[in-house]
Amino acid sequence: MAELTMVKALNLALHQNMEADPRVIICGQDVGRDEGVFRVTEGLYNRFGESRVLDSPLAEAGIIATSIGMALYGLRPIAEIQFSGFIYQGFHQIEQHMARFRNRTRGRLTVPMVLRAPYGGGIRAVEHHSESKEAYWVHTPGLKVVIPSGPRAARALLHAAISDPDPVIFYEPKILYRAFREEVPDEPESWEIGKARIVRPGNDITLISYGSTMRVTQEAGDDLADLHNIDAEVIDLMTIKPMDTDTIVQSVRKTGRAVVIHEGHRTCGVGAEIIARLNEQAFDYLEAPIRRVTGYDIHFPYFSCEQVYLPDAERIVRGAMDTLNY
Amino acid sequence: MPRRKLKLQHEVEELSILDVDGQVDTALEPALNHDELLRIYRAMVLTRELDDRMLKMQRQGRIGTFAPCRGQEATQIGYIYPMQKEDWVVPSYRAPGAQIWRGWHLEQILLFWNGYEEGARTPEGVNDLPVAIPVGSHPILAAGIGMGMKLQGTKQVVLTAFGDGSTSEGDVLEAFNFAGVYQAPVVFVCENNQYAISLPRAKQTRAETIAQKALAFGYDGIKVDGNDVLAMIVVTTEAVNKARRGDGPTLIEAFTYRMQMHTTADDPKKYRSDEEVKEWEKKCPLLRFEKYLINKKAADEKLLQEIHQDVIDEVQAGLERFEKCCVPQPDKLFDYTYAQLTPELQAQKEEFLAILAQRDSRNRKH
Ligand SMILES: Cc1ncc(C[n+]2csc(CCOP(=O)(O)OP(=O)(O)O)c2C)c(N)n1
Hints:
The complex is a heterodimer. By secondary structure, chain A is α/β, with parallel strands linked by helices.
């Protein structure tokens, strides 16, 4: 066990998987000699060389599509998009090829690859470096979407994503890259994709989130207890698709109230899907309408205003109190 | 059917006029009067001074991360010089000197990198687009603007600039193609500063030059010493004139060097040697132009000093205006999403403003 940041934990998963399986290769911009702009690929170029750690030309469509090709051929590519805001340069390859091969070829050809990208705001970055548009991928059949919120989960889920038989979009909350450390086992650890986790058990209300907003959601859970004597249950989805419907339904059947929290835009965001499922499976148990605390339906602001755009504990507490006082 | 060789014209010109010692090739030297030469010089000095100040400010936390352009002053002032007011420019993010030349306010450059949308608002009377952060996404907009000019039969020209890394993006190759197919009045300038973050030019493309990429699309490419402002002016003027005549696009490869880090978040020691940087220091675009000005008696040391001081004052005044403009405007965040705020967005805006008001009143109490 070592105390690692999320960056180091992801790096550990990459090292161990490359060590264990020669089919695993890495590609992306500046992932080699530069070791990634956030240093997630540290040490890999030196250890495995340029034949397995590819410094790609500056072309996201190329990075994504050649990874699809390598995956079809039998390799296990892990492609990095430097910032999720530039994944759209390869959107058509994800939608038209990555997501579809299994279905199109009736299972004969598959695309077991991982597409990693840092996402989310809060780091005073320039335009296009702060968006949270995971909903695009959740909308697309054939893709899995994983978004960890801490070092241990990041490592264990990346491990699972690499061995998954289907393409996985793996979004990393960059605000949490170095925000805190966690115990991470030395031995390879894999967590099942598609499972949520109750990070704080409670009885009065359920707060559901994932990725970059998990910390403020947990903070809100603590504040509700300290300031309002409310016992909130906090759930970290970890996988957005396939979603662990059971865990959230069980929780809301118990608490009767819920708030969903994410940075992405509200309309057709992940929260809308969560609420639809709760509506379908926990309707009779609901004491109040479910609230959304999310990014607004505007372009992510330049950073002088990013803090007022991002959900914070105060907004979450407010949403929870509205629900409780309904 | 025989198997035979197609005879294709495969030539790329290369041009340099002013060498590193400030010696000029008089046969190629453009006819610019002393006032013009000094205007060009001043713009290059302004670019350098702003860059230096921004680096200091970034280190002090007074602006956010930005992309320094030291070493690329001749490239940007050279290609912007021939552009007329009625023309359009689709700029790169590493050429603030070119933007200021076009009429952008100095404080806007700082506002953009300090997280204020006003930095991207094209000033009244200027035709240009703001810088695009997604690499290589904008040259094809220039192709479209050029197609519009052609359709409307105007005599305007559009120029767009982008880095060497950008030429790997599909959109850039599509831009080259559309401009060629429609013979649009576009000037493409690749600011080949040898690196795309850590990736050296040689690993970006197998091609020997970037200029030659134009040949595949049916028009000329030319490689220019990008640290030679005279060569930049000559080549861009030719390309602009050609476009204005209706003879279509040109691709200019400005061969230069990024003297600083990619952005202030980058550590270039990881991927390039100090010796390499030192070699390029000798090719400084400003030093050689100063020698030229003095040899030509367009200026003496004293005049150059005065210009420097004048530029320092201008930058200082811009920084002071900038600091006054650094007032976040959260109430404006919703207003430019559509021509008219939609009812659903209006509702979100009200929710947002209520939260802000509550926060403000609480902060005041504390
Ligand atoms: C589409 C896209 N991909 C990746 C990035 C991240 N990024 C910013 S600048 C850069 C390198 C650009 O190199 P080049 O085009 O040569 O221009 P330079 O920055 O050297 O002027 C990269 C990879 C981005 N901004 N946009």
